Amino acid sequence: MRKAELLDLIIATLQNDLALAVRAAQSAHEAATHEENIAENKYDTLGLEAAYLAAGQSRRVEEIRQALAAYRNLPLRPFDARQGIQLGAWVVLVDDQGVEQQFFLGPDGAGLKVRLGDSEVRVISPRAPLGQGLLGKGEGDEVSIGSGRQARSLEILRVE
């Protein structure tokens, strides 16, 4: 099952992202607490800005940790046409020009992209409009993305 291989890639990518985020958070914390960044007057905000950055980096670390835990606990099930697309589905969509796009419907980590062989797979979550639109659908169904003049209809080609 290539879906298990895809899940392993997503987890490895999140682990790398976590390591980078931890280093960035540590650097930001060091900058925020460094003696050279102590405010000398009320207009000296370098220390305050570094503290805001450190707080943001720490939140990012926690978000990645939560996403990583969700993926490690994600059960991979084969596609069941009666239930339609659910969390953990690997979906191939095709537009009216025949261009295929691959998506993995995950619990979190939206926006993440991984390469499996020659294919790029984008991770989306059910909170994204496309993720919401896919839930419950099956092969041959259509899903719309965008709105107004930029609305496009995509056909669900394959689901694993």
UniProtKB/TrEMBL annotation:
GO molecular function: DNA binding
UniProt-listed InterPro entries: GreA/GreB_C_sf, Tscrpt_elong_fac_GreA/B_C
Gene3D superfamilies referenced in this protein's UniProt entry, alphabetically: Transcription elongation factor, GreA/GreB, C-terminal domain
GO biological process entries: regulation of DNA-templated transcription elongation
Recorded superkingdom: Bacteria
Domain Transcription elongation factor GreA/GreB C-terminal residue range list: 85-160
SUPFAM superfamilies (UniProt xref): FKBP-like
Name recorded for this polypeptide: Transcription elongation factor GreA/GreB C-terminal domain-containing protein
Species of provenance: Zestomonas carbonaria
